[in-house]
Amino acid sequence: MLLALLILHLSILTFSPLRPSISFQTSATAVILSAAVLGMLWALIQFLLVTRIPIRSEGISDSTGLVSGSNDEATTRRLTEIYTAIYEGAESFLRAEYR
Length: 99
Fold this sequence. Notes:
Layout: H1 2-15, H2 24-51, H3 73-97
Helix pairs in contact: 1-2
C-alpha cells in the first residue's frame, strides 16, 4: 500500500505540468531505492516474527535419537542406508534434469 502511494506520488510529480525540476531518471531511482528500503523493512519484520516462534523438542532426549552417542553398528548401518538412498535419488534427479 505504501509503495503504491509512493509510486502514485512520484508519477504525479513526474507528469504534472507544474512539476519541480526533477528528471525521470531521478524519480525512477527514487522508486527503485524506495522499493529496496521497503523490501528490507518487510524482511526485517518477517525475521522478527519468525524469531519469536519458540523451538521446543518435547519428548525427545539424547537417548531416544538415532545417534545417541553410542557407537552402535546397527545405527551406523542405518545411517549409511539413508545416506545412500538420498545420494542415489539426488544423482538420478540431476541426471534426468540435465539430459
